[in-house]
Amino acid sequence: MMIATREVTYDVDGLSMVAHLAQPDGEGPWPAVLIGHDGIGLDDYQRHRADDLAVHGYMALAMDYHGGQLYFGRPDAMLARVMPLMADVERMQAIGRVALDILLAMPGVDPDRIAALGYGAGGRIVLELARIGVPFKAIAVVHPGLPDANAEDWTDLTSTFLLCTGSEDPLCTPEQILTFGRALQDAGVDWRANIYGGAKHAFWARPTNPDGSPAAGITHTEATVPGVGYHPKHATRAWQAVLDLLGETFQTLG
């Protein structure tokens, strides 16, 4: 399928954001997916997730919540930006809401068929949108920052949840995923969890050189927070799980 991509700029949280929009060729109406990037920033991986979703028949917006900044190789600067944000629910909701409104305003979007995909801190942002009532039909989060596991926060949801993490992720452990899943279970929510054996945090992130070019091997050559590692096999599997969830939910070709 032919797709079209472009940057979308908007202001929120005191910053000028630069999101990435990908859309199928044609007039739609298309199901829509909001993507929240990992704490390092909106990089080519998340842009390519949006592009691949467009190939599969979805309108996808990869939001930006760092004002165009990339923090890969600068873990201290990343944490200085991300940790205060993760501690402020209203900020997360505002950032996510503006991006979602931009996506929903795009010609060709079907507002009754929306989903969310989030990585790391971006996973927390989309979860906060769901918690305040955004009617996502499906939510996929990969090693997300998780909110407190309170069943009463999720009782009104009709979303299907996919929760993913690596067995060796110290920042989003399998135990945390299952505790959150239990809260969803107690709330009557449809959920599933994928635990990828041997995978660490951000296992989808391929190592790069300082100039941004791909580095050989699976070991990161630049500074990261502890517990990060690339696992190409599980990166492929996790992406297929996201496509399967969306395909099942929207009955499209996944």
From TrEMBL:
Keyword tags: Hydrolase
Matches recorded under InterPro entries: AB_hydrolase_fold, Dienelactn_hydro, FrsA_esterase
One Pfam family, short name: DLH
Gene Ontology molecular-function annotations: hydrolase activity
Domain Dienelactone hydrolase: 19-248
PANTHER family: DIENELACTONE HYDROLASE DOMAIN-CONTAINING PROTEIN, DIENELACTONE HYDROLASE DOMAIN-CONTAINING PROTEIN-RELATED
Full protein name: Dienelactone hydrolase family protein
